[in-house]
Amino acid sequence: MSGPVVIVGGGIVGLSCAHELLRRGREVVVLERDGPGADGCSLGNAGMIVPSHFVPLAAPGMVALGLRWMLDNESPFWIRPRLDLGLLRWGWGFWKAANQGHVDRCAPVLRDLNLRSREIFLRHRAELGEDFHLEDVGLLALCRTQRTLDHEAAFAAKSNALGVPTEVLAAAEVRRREPGIDLDVAGAVLMARDAHLDPRRLMAALERDVVRRGGRILRGRGVTGWRAEGDRLRAAATREGEVEGEDFVLAAGSWSPEAAAGLGLRLPMQAGKGYGMRIERPVQRPRHCSLLMDDRVAVTPMGDSVYVGGTMEIAGNDLSVNPARVRGIRKAFVRHYTAFREADFASAPVWAGLRPCPPDGMPYLGRTAARRNLVVATGHSMMGLSLGPVTGEIVAQMTCGEPVSVRLAQVDPDRHA
Fold first, then answer.
1. What's the rounded Cα separation, in Å, for the pair 291 and 196?
2. What string of H, E and C letters represents the secondary structure of the chain?
3. Alpha carbon 126 to chain centroid, angstroms
4. pLDDT tens digit string along 27-59?
5. What is the tens place of the pLDDT at every residue in 69-109?
6. DSSP string over 323-371
7. Who's near 334: CB < 8 A, 6+ residues apart?
8. How far apart are CA 399 and CA 5, in angstroms?
9. Backbone angles phi, psi at 406, to 5 degrees
10. Residues 257, 400: Cα–Cα separation, whole Å
11. Mean pLDDT (whole number) for 149-171
């Protein structure tokens, strides 16, 4: 019988890998660097499942838009100026990738990964036996100006051509779809295949399922090194000792390059910090999750609360809160949802999390030449939750010698070697 699979990282990707491996009868040990009660990126995000997000972060126009946003301290994007060779290389890589050819190559891959992940989410809803508020009613890309709506309508046409259905809605139709919600918008695009859930409830359900199936989750066990024999790993080293395994999975999010130190594995990545807040007793509760396209803010109903979040702040692995960015999120929300006031956020704690962002906006997923028995599963940028289930499935398929369910062009973990 095969030995255990050691998974480095206990976020949505790590737990999804554990779930899928345990379903196939493998023994699993999850090593999570944070201790009990930590509030990682998989817990505080917007909970969106987004087949509509088939354009990678590195896309035409993003460099110019980012430079313009840098001048506004409440904008959705900011890079902390610092002398850092890794940041400079990442920026150069982003600039090189931000072209239409890159988008054309990557869009079908991201579409297929997200659509397969959506299927697994629906299976989770049927099989996990717990309510994590999964609603597959679509996402509204809300536009305050006609110019933004025209831009999103052009994107909708491309989305439909790629087989991801969308519908352009005038303001009156948006209000009909969201009865009782006061909105200041010119219109919206409905992303019909998108969905949303409560990530905290999902993570709790997955963790209970992993433990029920016999998996071990060791918290406070950050990886500090590795023991190898030839081209195979034999153990992951932690401050509490070694954890031996037959196969290994690197799924440590923004800390993956740090965890991979000594493996000869090059994973250029920057942490993209985002913020989120929950309004626990909202004056109105929308039916759909939404993206406020003029301001890049996410809004998600989660049970009886409403989540509001956003920002992409490149500042290293730093979880401190930038008040100006949080103000920008709040202002954007109340501009769109006019029944709310900024005072509604007074009792809402600000959560911060780090998204692992490769320079070309594509995940690192697959086997690596660094070690024969290592699978890399990280770098999902803003789609970590959405792509978690399919990543877990693919990792389990690779580890167990099964055919892979989704083609993996453009996500080779050795592409920057």
1. 12
2. CCCCEEEECCCHHHHHHHHHHHHCCCCEEEEECCCCCCCCHHHHCCCEECCCCCCCCCCCCHHHHHHHHCCCCCCCEEECCCCCHHHHHHHHHHHHHCCHHHHHHHHHHHHHHHHHHHHHHHHHHHHCCCCCCCECCCEEEEECCHHHHHHHHHHHHHHHHCCCCEEEEEHHHHHHHCCCCCECCCEEEEECCCEECCHHHHHHHHHHHHHHCCCEEEECCCEEEEEEECCEEEEEEECCEEEECCEEEECCHHHHHHHCCCCCCCCCCEEEEEEEEEECCCCCCCCCEEEECCCCEEEEEECCEEEEEEEEEECCCCCCCCHHHHHHHHHHHHHHECCCCHHHHCCCCCEEEEEEECCCCCCEEEEECCEEEEEEEECCHHHHHHHHHHHHHHHHHHHCCCCCCCCCCCCCCCCCC
3. 23
4. 999 999 988 877 778 899 999 999 999 999 888
5. 787 788 888 888 888 899 999 999 999 999 999 999 999 99
6. HHHHHHHHHHHHHHBTT--GGGGTT-PPEEEEEEE-TTS--EEEEETTE
7. 340, 341, 342, 344
8. 9
9. -130, 135
10. 25
11. 96
**Statement: the pTM of the whole predicted model exceeds 0.90:** yes
Q: Are 384 and 253 in contact (CB under 8 A)?
A: yes
pLDDT at residue 403, as a whole number: 95
311 exposed, middle or buried (CB, 10 Å; 0-12, 13-18, 19+)? buried
